[in-house]
Amino acid sequence: MPEIITAWECIGCGRLERPQNCVGVCQDRKVNLVAEHDYVQLAAELAQARQQLESLRNVMRQIVKTTPRNAEWERSYRALQARAQQALGKESPEVAAEPVAETAA
Q: What is the distance between the alpha carbons of residues 66 and 46, in angstroms, rounded to a whole number?
């Protein structure tokens, strides 16, 4: 986890400063900083995305390793649809009740 430092921010110009003991060889250099609340929010979103990715990987593993028996294709397909829907969570649209027939081009 990255180090979080505490610094002083000027409310006028936005200058940031972190008091440290100078050893006489200091040089100023440009750094990019992120506010802690933004970092915490992004870290939480990343954790959620990783969890969802793992759920989707599990569904994909099941698809790869599953071979339905004769006359069981539709039942297996619907079960895989349900698992994929669950892995996608609330953001995904509902799975259609009836399969859409594909037409040959």
A: 30
CA distance 95 to 11: 51
Listing DSSP states for 39-77 in one string gives: HHHHHHHHHHHHHHHHHHHHHHHHHHH--PPTT-HHHHH
Q: What is the CA radius of gyration of the chain?
A: 26
Question: Of 6-10, 21-25, 27-31, 54-58, where does the model show the most confidence?
Answer: 54-58
Beta bridge mates, 8: 17
How far, CA to CA in Å, does 14 sit from each of 7, 30, 103? 11, 14, 61
Q: Which range among 8-12, 22-26, 47-51 shows the weakest confidence by mean pLDDT? A: 22-26
